[in-house]
C-alpha cells in the first residue's frame, strides 16, 4: 500500500482529492483559453500573419498559455470549483 500524499487521509481519499483538483484546474484552463480567444489573443495581424496554419494552431497556443496561467495561480476559479466539488462529495458520502 502506498503512503498517503496528504497527511491524515487514507490513500484513496487523497487520490480522489488530487483527481478532483486536476479536473478543476483543467476546467479553469479551458475557461481561460476561451476567454483569451474571445479577447482576440492569437488573431492574425495584418499581412504578416501565418495564414491558415497559424489559425489552425492558435488554439493550442492559447490552451497552453491558459494552462500556464492556472499553474501560476490562475484567477481562483479552480479553487472555487474544487471546494464546491469537495463539499458535494462529502455530502454525498456522509
Brief descriptors of the model:
single chain; mainly alpha
Note down, in words, how this protein is organized:
The protein is an all-alpha fold and 94 residues long. It has one domain (11-37, 53-93). Helices cover 70% and strands 0% of the residues. The chain contains 3 helices and no strands. It has helices spanning 11-38, 51-71, 77-93. Helix 1 packs across helix 2 (51-71) and helix 1 (11-38) packs antiparallel against helix 3 (77-93). InterPro entries: Flagellar_prot_FlgJ_N. This is Chemotaxis protein chel.
Instruction: Give the overall shape.
Output: elongated
Question: Helicity range of the residues?
Answer: over 70%
Profile the largest sheet: none
Report mean pLDDT, rounded to a whole number: 83
Question: How many structural domains are formed by the residues?
Answer: 1
Straight-line distance between termini? 25 Å
Residue runs with pLDDT of under 50 for 5 or more positions: none
CA radius of gyration: 18 Å
Strand percentage lies at under 5%
Structural class given helices, strands, pairing? mainly alpha
The string of secondary-structure elements, in order, is HHH
**Number of E-type strands:** 0
Number of helices: 3
Amino acid at each position: 500500500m502506498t503512503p498517503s500524499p496528504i497527511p491524515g487521509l487514507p490513500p484513496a481519499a487523497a487520490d480522489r482529492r488530487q483527481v478532483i483538483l486536476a479536473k478543476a484546474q483543467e476546467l479553469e484552463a479551458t475557461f481561460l483559453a476561451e476567454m483569451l480567444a474571445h479577447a482576440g489573443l492569437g488573431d492574425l495581424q495584418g499581412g504578416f500573419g501565418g495564414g491558415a496554419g497559424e489559425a489552425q494552431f492558435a488554439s493550442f497556443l492559447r490552451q497552453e498559455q491558459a494552462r500556464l496561467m492556472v499553474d501560476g495561480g490562475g484567477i481562483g476559479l479552480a479553487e472555487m470549483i474544487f471546494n464546491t466539488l469537495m463539499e458535494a462529495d462529502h455530502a454525498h458520502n456522509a
